[in-house]
Amino acid sequence: MTAPALRARAISKRFGPVNALSDVDFVLETGEVHALLGVNGAGKSTFIKILSGVYRKDEGSIEVGGEAIDCRDPKEAIRHGIATVQQHPELVADFTGYENIFLGREAARSGLFSRIERTDLSRRANALLKRFPVDIDLSKTVAEMSAVEREIVAILQALAGDHIRVLILDEPTSTLTEVEKTVLFRLIDTLRQAGISVLYITHRLEEVMEIADRLSVFRGGRMVASMPVADVKAKNLSLAELMLGEALDHVFPPRAEPDAIGETVLAVRGLTAAGAFSNIGFELRRGEILGIFGLVGSGADELAKALFGAIPVEGGSVVLKGHTIAPRSPREALKAGIFLVPGDRRVEGLALTETSIFNITLANLKRASGTAGILKRAGNRTASGEFAARLALSPPNLSMPVSGFSGGNQQKIVVAKGLFAEADVYIFVEPTIGVDIGARAKLYGLMRELSGTAGVIVLSSDCDEAHGIADRTFALYKGRQIAPPDGLQTRNQLLMAGIMGELHRD
């Protein structure tokens, strides 16, 4: 009987008094796409870090192709045939695709005076494309590439060694459009046919049913379920309930009652930004959530940044609580009372090397500081701790650098930063990218809570999210606003407006 591509037995890992993993058994078959599921803090990140050599296991054993291994660092994991593509691959923007693929392995022969032959790099890259056919121009720089092309380069970089048997993909579609996701899934299917096993980590549960052969669910540091995806479909099981260990009645909180809708907080008229969007107009009232659905390229991200003063506008007006404002920078927007939770939290929302306390208090230094601008350290720690508890930050370590948190918990820190800012308008862009189903429900509940005292705008490329959370909606399509006077009423109307740019009757 052929040994599986990877087998883990009784894996355990502790961090001080915390059991991150307890007696985890796991099998990955050859040529299988295996989805790994679990809410933030369930243990899946710890497990893949052990497999990829970032962490050392405390107990248990790991085999690759029937051979026992013990990876003490990522290089050793790669040597044993396990490669990992992180959620945010580190690529050199000014280098070409093929230069990135062989970064650190440019010379065919090692040595102090080895020469880098770019013609040879190109030849080696083309040979790799013959093994894993995909439509991509590797002569372009990474800066010129789309999100899916960058993901493909990262995957090819991981597979550059002929001996790779196991590929770990961590949230590979978090920044991809639906069309780009299809391109990536074709490549994954090619890998499957080539006999490479893929361990696929995602919070997008619909993807599991589309791409995976099997799935395993982590909860509380233990493996609580492992089964073929076909069985999930046949038995009509709820993946969300498997992950949470309880019935999931409502992901989205109830919509606001009509008498809960208050005065207009924000009025936008004819707002225009060159090359991004034109003639955008809406009113946002206290007590409600406005949902805006727009695909990549629709102008949704640019609209959020224009309202936050991060990009200039060339026409139109913005009235906040009865006063016309024209923020020329995020600092001016924050001072006026507008807070943005950006779509790219790592680049635009967080200082990754700093602590949670530093990040949470950064947007309201007036509140964070006392006499003569001296920081209120005790008060800031107390306030940050209260927000962390309210958002169920895991682990609740306020002194740890933000880079050490999972993507979902990093998003919670950005939201806590917004709470500390005490804004009148909160703008959420792609609020649940990389966030598990349990944390999503908490974030949606918090948005509804915020709408009681402030105006809330949610801009999302997920139509179900924009429609499910909002009281009123409209769509953006190629920089144009698609909406009747009273907003789009149904999910299908919103979807068709966002993908076709036209109003349709259900």
Give a verbal description of the structure:
There is one protein chain. The protein is an alpha/beta fold. The protein folds into 2 domains: 239 residues, P-loop containing nucleotide triphosphate hydrolases (Rossmann fold), CATH 3.40.50.300; 239 residues, P-loop containing nucleotide triphosphate hydrolases (Rossmann fold). It is 34% helix and 24% strand. It is built from 19 helices and 20 strands. The strands form 4 sheets. The protein has a 6-stranded mixed β-sheet with strand order 6-7-8-3-9-10, sandwiched between helices. The protein has a 6-stranded mixed β-sheet with strand order 16-17-18-13-19-20, with helices on both faces. A hairpin with a 2-residue loop joins strand 14 and strand 15. Helix 5 runs parallel beside helix 6, helix 15 packs across helix 16 and helix 18 crosses helix 19. The longest helix is centred in the middle third of the chain and has 16 residues. The termini are far apart. The model has no long low-confidence stretch (mean pLDDT 88). One of its GO terms (molecular function) is ATP hydrolysis activity. Keywords: ATP-binding, Membrane, Nucleotide-binding, Plasmid, Repeat, Sugar transport, Transport.
